[in-house]
Amino acid sequence: MKKIAPYIYFPLIIVILLQLISWTQLFRDLESKISDQMFNQRGTQPISGDIVIVGIDDETFSSLDMQWPFPRTFYAHMIDNLESAGVKQIIFDVEFTETAKNPMEDNILADTAAKYNNVIFCGKLIKDNIKQTEQLLSPVKPITDKKLNWGIVNIYSDPDGFIRKYTLFEPFGDAYEYSIGIASLANERVYQDDWKKYLNRTSRNLKIGTYSIPIIENNLAIINYYGPAGTFKTYAMSSILDDSTFTMPMLDLNEFDDIRKSGALKNKTVLIGASIDELHDNFNTPFFLSSKVLTPGVEIHASFLEMVHHKNYLYPFSEIYLLIILFILAVLLYAFYSFMKPQFAIIITLILIALYIYITYFLFVHDNLILPVMQFILMNLATFIVGLVGHYIRTNRERKFIKGAFSRYMAPELVQELLKNPKSLQYGGKQQEITVLFSDIRSFTTYAESHTAEETVSILHEYLTAMVDIIIQNKGILDKFVGDEVMALYGTPVQLENDALSACKTAIAMYYSLKDLQDKWKSEGKQIFEIGIGINTGNVIVGNLGSDQIFDYTAIGDSINLGARLEGLNKEFDNEKHIIISEFTLEKVKDMVEVKYLSEVNVKGKMKAVKIYALLAVKDGF
Predict the structure, then answer these.
(1) Arithmetic mean of pLDDT, 510-517
(2) Across all residues in the chain, what is the average pLDDT?
(3) With b meaning 16 or more CB within 10 Å and e meaning fewer, what string describes 302-317?
(4) Which residues of 221-239 are buried (b: 16+ CB within 10 A; e: fewer)?
(5) Residue 266: helix, strand or coil by DSSP?
(6) How many CB atoms lie within 10 A of CB 148?
(7) Which CA distances in Å does 487 have to 457, 478, 501, 550, 568?
């Protein structure tokens, strides 16, 4: 359980920190910018053509040749013209919240709109967050007295100045004021008498008849923009005014007569609003990144209505599901990165990020699903970095363990090879062919009994130091001391080109080194001793063996037992160098050494007798 715990709590900490970061404004701005790129990559989408815009634009100001504001009788005349063209609905994104200089104009506008019962006016909710006051600017009294439909035109930008969401309603006092978009949809359902009571509002949706608009952040809906400014068919206001009964001061072409005859406006929802820069009703939308053109506010309302009419909503991915998915992925990726080499891990990281971005774009285009991108990217990078650090710490700890465990009884170059490939150091045990060398002092018990403890320890230390140096020089690994007995392994944990030859070279070197020691001891007046050496090659179980409390890197098996048995046979045969090797070892070095056949011996665990040989020398060149 302790080994598994890090693979749970590290990813959990990463996901929790990411969630906290995701609430910061900087993080949200980054996500919004990525979402904007999705719109631009998707490009302009086809629209139904059911919504058209009448723009108060440069052409209108040029044609009318007058200052703003225009007389309200112009708007009344425009309503009559549009109705005569068979429009379905007229929506004003022009505020008539202050009484006209000539109050009769307000009455004419209200009376004209009241004739058709499909005209939506607009107001605005003014909030002073510093003074914490609110003021509702409703249309002028003649319009409200006739109980004509109206809604608010409040549109709020994100902190970076881009408009990505549509305000469905605003709380005001004990009630709610709804946007002109919602007023338009309610009017379509023929909810003329107190239409607000027919709306069904929940924390997740605003339902208007068959429409169910998904709500985010209490009162907002994500706008599924269809394109940049100019996506919707637009007529200049002057073109709608210019009929046979209206005299244009500049160029009187009676344009509207042709528009009406063409049937271009029949059954259309018409939004009327400003698009000229001087009226300051143009805004940043996601498509500004590619078009560099601000979008008129009236066209934002048009985008919202087009989206609702065709139920083409955008849905944010569930935060709860996202956290669950991120946590599961973090656990899997952390475990993966912890054992993956860094150079491969970074490639996998980049591939996963690219794949995830493609998936989010695919879901955006085909399923209208907005999936956060930055959280996955940061989660992936964080798990990669934490996994990399864990991999480094674990590798460093492993290197220190290997170096500390083997450097005392293994050749330095073998230790370096082992550090390059620590997997060759099998934890537990594996079967492998190696060569084992046993060396033992003849009659050492008698020697110890006839000498003091200090003398025995001193001479044994000198002897074992020399023997271990030879083992290490010949790329062997000192397995253990058992009293005066030495056990060495060749071919593990790092494989050698010829482990049997290395063991034979060790035995010959040990013989001559002992001769040098014997000459030295004689000169010092010390009693000398002889040794016996046994060498065998075969399959063994090698690895970290032992108990939970104590374990050691060693080898076990019949081949080890045979090596020990061969060492003991030196007492029974007349053998000049007291080195006996088995037929299995000889098979590996037969062209490289000089030997003398001794006999066949029966060994426990072997059905056939084993041929044994006295090792005389290693041939020159080997």
Answers:
(1) 94
(2) 87
(3) bbbbbbbbeeebbeee
(4) bbbbbbbbbbbbebbbbbb
(5) coil
(6) 18
(7) 19, 6, 16, 19, 13
Strand, helix or coil for residue 177: strand
Cβ neighbour number for residue 265 with a 10 Å cutoff = 23
| Confidence class for position 408, pLDDT limits 50, 70, 90 | low
Q: Is the pLDDT of residue 487 over 70?
A: yes
Per-residue pLDDT for 148 more than 80? Answer: yes
In 264-385, DSSP assigns E strands to 269-274, 282-283, 295-296, 315-316, 369-370
CA 134 vs CA 98, 165, 182: distances in Å: 17, 22, 21
Backbone angles phi and psi of 282, in degrees to 5: -115, 145
> Is 436 strand, coil or helix?
strand
Cα dist from 9 to 15, 184, 326, whole Å: 10, 52, 13
| Mean pLDDT, range 55-65, rounded to an integer | 93
Distance CA 133, CA 127 (A): 6
CA distances 210 to 184, 263, 546, Å, are 14, 28, 74
What's the angle, vertex CA 618, arms to CA 617 and CA 622, rounded to 5? 170
pTM of model > 0.85: no
Unique residue bearing structure tokens 């070892």: 585
**159's tokens:** 């902190």
Backbone torsion region of residue 263, taken as left when φ is above 0, otherwise alpha when ψ lies between -120 and 50, otherwise beta = left
In 346-496, beta strands by DSSP E: 369-370, 430-441, 477-482, 485-490
Rounded to whole angstroms, the Cα distance separating 613 from 287 reads 89
Helix H, strand E, coil C: the string for 186-197 is: HHHCCCCCCHHH
Q: 260: closest CA among 240, 245, 277, 279?
A: 240
Question: Does 521 or 195 have the greater pLDDT score?
Answer: 521
The region of weakest confidence among 34-38, 128-132, 261-265 is 128-132
Cα Rg of the chain, angstroms: 46
Cis peptide before 493 (omega within 30 of 0): yes
CA 164 to CA 50: how far, in whole Å? Answer: 22
State residue 384's pLDDT score. Answer: 83
| Candidate from 120-129, 229-238, 351-360 with smallest mean pLDDT | 120-129
* Residues whose CB is less than 8 angstroms from the CB of residue 421 and which lie 6 or more positions away in sequence, other chains included: 494
pLDDT digits (tens, 9 = 90+) for 354-398: 999 999 999 999 999 999 999 999 998 888 888 777 766 666 665
Distance CA 406, CA 423 (A): 15
On whether the CB atoms of residues 509 and 466 are closer than 8 A, the answer is: no
